[in-house]
Structures are given as C-alpha cells and as structure tokens.
Design a protein that fits this description.
The protein is an alpha/beta fold. The protein has two domains: 2-93 and 207-260, Rossmann fold; 97-205, Rossmann fold, CATH 3.40.50. It has eleven helices and ten strands. Helix 1 (12-22) crosses helix 10 and helix 7 (143-149) runs antiparallel to helix 8 (156-167). The longest helix is centred in the N-terminal third of the chain and has 17 residues, at 43-59. Bound molecules: D-glutamic acid (DGL).
C-alpha cells in the first residue's frame, strides 16, 4: 500500500515535504499540471478532473490519499468519501482558520486562497461554525499559482511584487494572523515574510495535514519505513518541473523518480 498525494502541480509538494520528513514511506504524488490552475475553473470541471486523478491513484494501490490542495478539497472531498467509502481514506487540506481564530481572538484573520476555495460552501460553513464572519478578510491570490507553475523557474520576483501590492493598504494593527489557504503559497514564504510584520502569525496546513495523515496511516497498518520512495507523476510533459520540484522538496534527486502518465 502506498500513500497517494494529489495537487494541480507544485503546491502538493509543500505538504509532501513535511510528510517525507516525519514519516518515511512509499509515496505516489500526482502533479496535475495539465489542468493547472484549479482555482479559476468551475466546480464541476474541478470535480471531474480530481475524480480521474484519484482513480489513477486507487488503481496504483493507494488506499490513503492526501488531497494536498485546498481547492480540490473544498470541491470534491465529500464526493470522494462517498464514492470510495470503506475502500479509501481521504485526508483533506483546509485553510487553518480554526487555530487562527482561537489564538487571536480579538483580531482579524486574512485568509488567502484561490477564488474557488473562497467561493465554496465548505469555507463558509467553517467560518460560520466559528462565528467568525466579521473577523475574516478573504483575499484571492490566484496569480501566485501561475508564478510557481508557468515559467521555467519559479518567479519569486513577480510573486514578491504581487504580494507587496496586495498587502500595501493593510492596517496591521487590526490583524492577528494570515492563513495560507492554498498549498502553493508556502513556496513564497520568504517573499511573504518581507511584507508581513513579524508579530503576525502566518499559518499553513502542512503540519496539521501531515499529523492527520500519519494517524490514519498507522490505523491502516501503514508503518514508517526505513527510507522514502517517492514517485512524482505529472500529467503533462514539462522539462522544468523536476528542478522546481526538487528545490521545493529540498531532497537529493536519487530519492525521487519522475514520470508522465
Ligand atoms: N494548490 C491548490 C490549492 O491548494 C490549487 C492551486 C490551483 O491550481 O489553482 O488550492
């Protein structure tokens, strides 16, 4: 049994990086660059694409699948859990709004995510359940996905300018934390740090998702291995993907194989 991962591209690797560090295992990760970005597509299209990718992982012996993408989780996780009940365990990635609201009670929370994640009912329900409607500043940041995926190299410079422009008018006294609700955004952690005052907490989902994954893996009898074996599958030929992926994962290349499905 392998552990499956799925995202529209490089974003899933920000979670996979934490998973391989904490829980060496056999991983199969789909980077669906053919269909990237998910965040600007409609719900029905994203659901169809996600279903196809999940089917591939299931056919390849993944019984525990991390949907390492906030957008895909918002749209498809309930559907997938219903469709594959008793056969596959799905770990979703949701914006970490809860800790942000709990730890910074009197302050506002900026939730950065894709347009589709911010529009989805799942986030609305989460915010409602915390009675935190008045505290939220919802900020679509879709362009960051393109700055990671589109060019030969990750375009840190354009990402930095975009982040600066988005945060220019911010009244920081009112803000307690920023939730990175898209798995691509931690790729630009350094760029964010330049424009976010140090007392603001920046929260991503990598640790929470990984801990959840490990708990379910152990329940399924998937134990920690001596070393990692990582297979990354792209859905389109892209000769630059490998270098960008290795940079994010920060591991020697002999530990990873790349192929196209
Ligand atoms: N990394 C994804 C997320 O967490 C999706 C980015 C995209 O394809 O728009 O939302």
């Amino acid at each position: 049994m392998k552990i499956g991962f799925l995202d529209s591209g490089l974003g899933g690797l920000t979670i996979l990086k934490e998973a391989i560090r904490k829980f060496p295992n056999e991983y199969m990760c789909i980077a669906d660059i053919k269909n990237s970005p998910y965040g600007l597509k409609d719900k029905k299209t994203v659901n169809q694409i996600v279903e196809q990718n999940v089917e591939y992982l299931v056919e390849n012996d993944c019984r525990l699948i991390v949907i390492a993408c906030n957008t895909a989780t918002s749209v498809s996780i309930e559907y997938l859990r219903n469709k594959y009940q008793n056969r596959v365990i799905f770990i979703g990635t949701e914006p970490a709004v809860k800790p942000a609201v709990i730890y910074h009670k009197d302050k506002q929370v900026i939730v950065m995510a894709t347009t589709l994640t911010l529009k989805e009912e799942k986030l609305e329900k989460l915010i409602d359940s915390l009675h935190a409607q008045d505290k939220m500043i919802l900020m679509p940041m879709d362009a960051l996905v393109g700055y990671a995926e589109k060019e030969e190299k990750i375009n840190y410079l354009l990402a930095e300018q975009y982040i600066q422009a988005k945060l220019k008018e911010m009244d920081w006294k009112k803000i307690g934390s920023i939730v990175l609700g898209c798995t691509h955004f931690p790729i630009f952690k350094k760029e964010f740090e330049q424009y976010i005052p140090s007392h603001i907490e920046v929260i991503d989902s990598a640790e929470g998702v990984t801990n959840n994954m490990i708990r379910h893996a152990l329940e399924l009898g998937i134990n920690e291995k001596d070393k990692n074996s990582i297979k990354i599958i792209t859905t389109k030929e892209d000769k630059h993907f490998r270098d960008k992926a290795l940079k994010i994962l920060d591991i020697p290349e002999e530990n990873v194989t790349f192929s196209k499905n």
